[in-house]
Specification:
Order of helices and strands: EEHEHEEEHHEHHEEEEHEEEE
Helix content: 10-25%
Strand order of the largest sheet: 1-2-3-13-5-15-4
Structural class: alpha+beta
Strand content: 25-35%
CATH architecture: 4-Layer Sandwich
Number of strands: 15
Largest sheet: 7 strands, mixed
CATH superfamily: Clavaminate synthase-like
Oligomer: single chain
CATH class: Alpha Beta
Number of helices: 7
Shape: globular
Number of domains: 1
CATH topology: Double-stranded beta-helix
Radius of gyration: 18 Å
Length: 268
């Protein structure tokens, strides 16, 4: 029998008793968990690529990159040609902030785990916004932020060469609201590694506010840390959860498989 329990007071649900991962009851619990708790965990489900894709398609349209709907997360260049880029995921971020419509949902399954490190942390930008003092919410509601790929990559490589910098700048920047006013009435913060500066604010003041909001959002009461076991499935609401990988050795063999579900709400 399917049962659920909270992963932390503010976010996350663990589902137990799963037999068929395509069972309507599980899909329904997943949708509910993503809407109200942000993260769903099923321990030891051991989905292969075909099974993960079948599950993902029950959640929505799977995003394909260069014709591939599943992406290998590994720091080993032999397994992942973009391994160097993944070092940026050690910093808090939301995927797709430079896209008009960010990814809605992400799934990860664990094939190999690191002996030390390699966990994934999540922080709820819904809970963070809802718990701000009312005066702060009013102050932030109409602010806008410029997001860029360069801002995220400078956290890994603060002094890039001209060719590297030119490559980063091929990805267009995007201006978004600091507070995402959802069509269902909820609100969340749009912050993280890609947040370069607040429009119309002095650089030092802008950086200080963005850093302050990131520190507020990632405090323990709004956060969940997942320690991976082989076979785990984790699904999360990318639009409302900051996430980051905890550092691990590139030779650890840590390997996760990822799918992403196409978004359906514009960030503007």
């Amino acid at each position: 029998m399917i049962a659920t329990k909270a992963l932390s007071p503010s976010l996350g649900v663990e589902v137990t008793g799963v037999g068929n991962p395509l069972d309507d009851q599980l899909i329904s619990r997943c949708a509910e968990a993503l809407q109200w708790r942000g993260i769903l965990l099923v321990r030891g489900l051991h989905l292969d690529d075909e099974g993960q894709l079948a599950f993902s398609r029950r959640l929505g349209k799977v995003f394909a990159v260069r014709g591939k709907e599943i992406f290998t997360v590994s720091l080993d260049p032999a397994r992942n040609p973009t391994a160097e880029y993944l070092k940026g995921t050690f910093h808090w971020h939301i995927d797709g902030t430079t896209d008009p419509v960010p990814t809605r949902t992400t799934t990860l399954t664990a094939r190999h785990v690191a002996m030390t490190g390699g966990g994934t942390e999540f922080a709820s930008t819904y809970a963070a916004y809802e718990n701000l003092p009312e005066a702060d919410r009013k102050q932030y509601d109409d602010l806008r932020v410029v997001h860029s790929f360069e801002a995220a990559q400078r956290l890994v490589t603060p002094d890039p060469g001209p060719e590297v910098l030119a490559g980063w700048r091929k990805v267009p920047t995007r201006e978004t609201p600091l507070v995402w006013k959802r069509r269902d009435g909820r609100r969340s913060l749009v912050i993280g590694a890609t947040a370069d500066h607040i429009v119309g604010m002095a650089a030092a003041e802008s950086r200080a506010l963005l850093d302050q909001l990131l520190e507020w959002t990632t405090q323990e009461r709004f956060r969940y840390t997942h320690d991976w076991r082989v076979g785990d499935l984790v699904v999360w609401d990318n639009t409302g959860m900051l996430h980051r990988a905890l550092p691990y050795s590139a030779d650890s063999q840590r390997t996760l498989q990822r799918t992403t579900i196409v978004g359906d709400e514009e960030l503007s």
